[in-house]
């Protein structure tokens, strides 16, 4: 960590020099403090006190009107300052002062503020009278909140007292409460309503410091008090909650303070590139296995502590805001909320599920899971009451092994899974209250566990619940428009809860070391045995957990036009029931990793694999000749609709071999034929001609991006030149089908998207058709690839590039698999190496998972038989990939 001190300007007052030196000493002390949370409040208060002293000295030096006052507001008004927080102050003027017209006052204010900034005080100031403050507060909730925490620093006590009295008299506590709760809801939605983001904002994210401040703001507005001990004294907070509030506030405060110190600026986000440094400042270290492998990073230890604290803060916020609202409504004479009995143990209290008495769960542990079953079953319930949440926490000791082994509890848990509605919300609430992890002990191990890859954006537990939500939506008619084919398959599924269990267990063994799919399958098998699930259904669940990664890998990395690939996958899944379940789980899983990972092209690949495998499972194993003839007939039918003369297709089709017809569907064949039939006839009439490349572009049939056809005289560097053009034009290639005709032409088809401008494809069609032929015809040497900038996430979780080059099972082609961090121009870098060795490319399957790429290329070239050439290609590819990710 570097020093925060800046050069001291020679003209500064002595108070400024003293402030800088004293603040530097305080920050050095804060850096060197122990890793614990003790003393953080005092340290933040000392920074505020030091600032108070400096501002008082500058105020006196500038000779302000003794009737005016300098008031601290916002966080500074609370009497605490983080190392690089803004310092918000209000220059409060008497009613007869007009700052805008007072020639004597304005220079003083300007000099005062200038000296503050020169001192290093990042000051935010406002100059107002009391009347102006009240008018601004009435119109702006943020101003109202800042003024609620006003504290006199220096100046007229009489004026400040007048401001306080008039401000509190004008404040409606209940209106303020409602507004702050709505504001909090909007803020939570901005941060995806979860404390488990992989880069949370420790101040603003759900469960951050702001959630604690909302409690104190609303309590202060209600006249309850301004400190946690005041809420405890009035009975709104229990002794246990008081300890939790203080502990978690201190932990979050230490995290925020250390972020400021390490970043050297105001930084409230636990971004990847700071997490390790913050973890080390707490004294956390990597946890290693006996063989030296890192099993748990220091940053993971830190983040797990953070997530548990944020989760506790969210629960406390929910409990205390409910209590404060009841206090406010009772104070205004509103009747107590209606209590409608549900059964002898629970009541519906104004839409919240409430226990009949505080000791219910401790006396009757079976009622714990019953509460969540009722929550899913009872229309109108929108959550748990503060009383119920407290009772759950107090009953945590009874959620032990006997609780987990109780047959009644197992039946209740299965009943929750089998409900026709409310399952997603029930399981979110089960996790928020920590009941899910106490009942499913394996689940407890992955709560708050980070995923150190380049495509997951949620912790493991949140990802699992997201997959459960996605799976559940396939069975809800209102969501059928999102994924119609999945909804169609789900409509015929008899017991959806089997798939929900598979979703719960598919990643439950992550972070243990070893194959999490195999370990998870063992956990799923144990669960099925314990919960009395029929053997056939148990085998399905275990199969889904063990194989949940397979369908994605085959769809995105293997040649789906190869009958043997389909036949092997069909044998692996065994039957159509397994296949349908695996397909639904795969789609739900991919969609649950990150909003950016799923796209229409991935969806098409998975659906194609599903449909081809269904045929194979039905005894209709794809016969190449039958498939080709079927596609030709369908293509000719489409061509007849556009009035292509009979027989006009034949000259082109005679130049195409079996692999072309196997790798392109009827729609693509018809499109190519329509565009090329006359061109091929003309070229054939004069064998000496070498026509310019033909490029045609249309909206992608899968509904996202563009499909590009390139027809040009084949050459070794053709694919590289096409990739280079797409790189320069900011397009990403999702898929490439490369084919060389019998007469030496390349007929290539690309699926492309532009992630920077996903809605402007109309104008791109003409641009690509005009520019790409020129790029292909260029005879200059291939330019070096651009070194694209590496994202923060890639820097934090670098992937060592991996190259695997080996012959396929028939020894007719070579398979090149590449795994690396994504960046601009990656595909061009690979293509350029292949072009330099004269390697022909037949197929490219481009898979982008967040910021990780897993690409597969089908290659052909006699030179690949030479081991030295193989080694040279692998080394060159590793070299360019390592350079690009540096």
Contiguous helical run count: 39
Sheet having the most strands: 9 strands, antiparallel
Mean pLDDT: 86
Q: What's the assembly state of these chains? A: single chain
Using the alpha-carbon principal axes, give the shape. Answer: globular
Q: Could you list the spans in which at least 5 consecutive residues all have pLDDT below 50?
A: 1-10
Class by alpha and beta content? alpha+beta
User: What gap, in angstroms, lies between the N and C termini?
Assistant: 24 Å
Number of strands: 19
DSSP helix fraction: 40-55%
Task: Calculate Rg over CA atoms.
Answer: 33 Å
Care to describe what's here?
There is one protein chain. This protein has 886 residues and is an alpha+beta fold. The model is unreliable at 1-10 (pLDDT under 50). It is built from 39 helices and 19 strands. The longest helix has 34 residues, at 298-331. 54% of the residues lie in helices and 11% in strands. The strands form four sheets. Strands 11, 12, 13, 14, 15, 16, 17, 18 and 19 form a nine-stranded antiparallel sheet that branches. Strands 3-2-1-4 form a four-stranded mixed sheet, with helices on both faces.
